[in-house]
Structure formats: structure tokens, C-alpha cells
Design a protein that fits this description.
The chain has about 325 residues and is α+β, with helices and mostly antiparallel strands. About 25% of the residues lie in helices and about 25% in strands. Helix 5 runs parallel beside helix 9. The radius of gyration is 21 Å and the shape is globular. The chain starts with a helix and ends with a helix.
């Protein structure tokens, strides 16, 4: 399975079925056992050679941000809300697909010509946005797009520029893709790859996976916010595409294990793997769940810098995805 296929699939938090089934089938021939737990996580286990008694877990989340339908207006516009952290400024005028029938639609707002002076001074929230599917009435709109169905940005994965890729779900299908690549290797230690659900709404899948795993170390493969835009000062850029995998020391959900953090940075230097340190303690990811459940786990986060994250057109460098894979693989091989 390639990264394009994964990114083009739809799988918001709570609607991961298509992505889950694809990952399950891709993982089966690569590991000793694979299962779906009660939360819907895919847990793939690969037995080591026995030369090491360590057990490593590598995690990535399969869900993406999306939208859910609440109702419709009498004239057929769908009322909706975001799933996960979505900036409403990014959503306006974007193409979407809605429901099981993949009904085409556009996210709309009152035209700038009709907005009041006060409207133009503020960001219109999701209570002022609608999805227009061209329906003439409430009944017509809800017939194909009933309350509780999901909507997704509608745009394809594309490679462009100097080794860049743009897609809607790079956070975190790139991590899932690299987990599949890790399962292709052979290691002295036991390896678990956890493809988890519902990260975007509070690390829910990882919480269950963490309780069930006896791994001593959890390394999370993620996408993270690039801060290299426009006139942002160098010191405030947090991380930048093209400089390699981003190693985090802290975020809003976890503090990494300092020994593990130093081990990974040293390994990156020794192996000549392009890397950078995340210069900011922002956001959060599944490390927060793995660190605090059961007896606790040593955690570290390996992220790929992502421009326009949580939008329809996120951008990353393919070289950074490769660096994430190489560093995770090097750690598994050298543990």
C-alpha cells in the first residue's frame, strides 16, 4: 500500500472503518499476529529473534479531521460541525463529499458583499457556515445526508515542487504508512505497531491500546505543525519542512523520557539521518496516553513537519517522511 492510497481514503474520528480494514489487510502478511481491539485500533505484533528481551511499540493514528452533519435548513443547506481541530477560515468554499453516497458539496458562508461591518471584523464560526449540496429542501438534503453522517474535504494526493506532497490526511497517514514499512523489517526485540483511532478528539484509541500493551517503550510517529511561514522569526518557527524528522522534548500531552530522547538524537547523528528538534511545547499526540497508562511507558515522538495541517491541502516534504522511517527503523535495529 502506498501513501497516496492511504491519504485519499476517508476516515475521521469515529468513521475509520475503510482505513482500518485497509491497514489490517496490509499488516497481515508482515507480522506474526494482528487484531482489532474493542476501540477499533489495529494492533500488529512481530516477534523478535530473541536476542533482546525488549518490547517496543510504535504508534500512529489512522483518523483525520472531518465534519459531521447535524441537520438541514428548510431550504436544503446542511448544518454541520467539525470533528477535531479545524479552523473555520480554512473551510470556507472548499469542496467536500458527504455521507455514504459521497454526495458532492461546497462549504459556504454569507458572501462578503452581504456581511455586516461587524461580520467582516470577526471570523465566521461553524454556526455561520453550511454545506451546499444543491438540494431544494430539508427533506431532499437529509435523504442522502442524514444527521450523524460524515463529510470530508474532497481533494487528491499530489506531488509537486521540490519533493513536496499535498493531501488532506497526511496527519497521520504518513505515520501509518511508515508503521507498515517498519513491519517489513526483522528485529532482535519484539515489535508492536499500533494503528490507533480517535486521536483527533482526545487520544481515545491510544488510551485503550496503552492499557493492553506490555511494551516498555512507545515511539509515536506523527505529523506536526510547521512554523516556517512568511515573516515568522527563525526562533519561532518550531520546525521546518526539509530539515528532517522532528524530535520533540515536550508538548501539551507528554514529557518525553530524557534518556530515550538523548539516545534517539545520538542515533540520528551516528547514522547521518536528517533531524531537527521541535522548538516549541505545543499541541499533543498519542504519547500522552501511552505515557500515563498501565505501568507507564518511556515515550518519544518523531514528527514530520506539516504546513497547513488540519486543512484540505496539507504539505510535507517526502524526505522528512523518509527520515522519520529511517530513525524509527534505526532505533528498532539498535535497541
Amino acid at each position: 500500500m502506498d501513501l497516496k492510497t492511504l491519504c485519499n481514503m476517508n476516515g475521521a474520528s469515529g468513521d475509520e472503518k475503510a482505513v482500518r480494514n485497509a491497514l489490517l489487510e496490509a499488516a497481515k502478511p508482515l507480522c506474526d499476529s494482528v487484531k482489532i481491539d474493542r476501540m477499533g485500533n489495529v494492533i500488529a505484533f512481530k516477534k523478535g529473534s530473541g536476542k533482546s528481551d525488549r518490547h517496543l511499540l510504535f504508534g500512529a493514528h489512522m483518523d483525520e479531521i472531518g465534519f459531521i452533519i447535524l441537520d438541514a435548513t428548510e431550504d436544503g443547506l446542511l448544518i454541520f460541525r467539525p470533528i477535531g481541530g479545524v479552523d473555520p477560515r480554512v473551510a470556507v468554499s472548499k469542496y467536500v463529499v458527504v455521507g455514504e453516497k459521497q454526495v458532492k458539496g461546497v462549504i459556504g458562508a454569507l458572501a462578503i458583499h452581504l456581511q455586516s461591518a461587524d461580520d467582516r471584523k470577526r471570523v465566521l464560526g461553524f454556526d455561520n457556515l453550511y454545506i451546499d449540496i444543491g438540494a431544494k429542501s430539508k427533506d431532499e438534503a437529509l435523504a442522502d445526508c442524514p444527521p450523524g453522517c460524515f463529510a470530508y474535504y474532497d481533494n487528491d494526493y499530489q506531488e509537486f515542487g521540490d519533493g513536496c506532497v499535498v493531501a488532506k490526511a497526511l496527519d497521520d497517514r504518513l505515520g501509518c504508512w511508515n508503521l507498515l514499512r517498519l513491519l517489513e523489517g526483522n528485529y532482535d526485540c519484539d515489535i508492536t505497531c499500533a494503528f490507533v483511532v480517535q486521536e483527533e478528539v482526545g487520544l481515545r484509541g491510544a488510551t485503550g491500546a496503552a492499557f493492553a500493551s506490555d511494551a516498555d517503550t512507545a515511539i509515536i510517529l506523527e505529523g506536526t505543525t510547521a512554523g516556517d511561514m512568511g515573516d515568522v522569526d527563525k526562533v519561532r518557527r518550531v520546525c521546518e519542512p526539509g530539515l528532517g524528522v522532528c524530535v520533540s522534548f515536550m508538548d501539551n500531552a507528554s514529557l518525553v523520557n530524557r534518556e530515550l530522547y538523548k539516545e534517539i538524537l545520538t542515533l540520528a547523528e551516528e547514522k547521518g539521518i536528517a533531524h531537527q528538534i521541535k522548538r516549541g511545547a505545543t499541541g499533543g499526540n498519542d504519547a500522552g496516553a501511552f505515557q500515563r497508562r498501565r505501568e507507564g511507558k518511556r515515550t518519544c515522538v518523531l514528527s514530520v513537519p506539516c504546513r497547513y495541517i488540519h486543512g484540505p491541502s496539507s504539505v510535507v516534504k517526502l524526505s522528512d517522511i523518509e527520515a522519520q522511517y529511517q530513525l524509527a527503523k534505526a532505533y528498532a535495529e539498535n535497541v
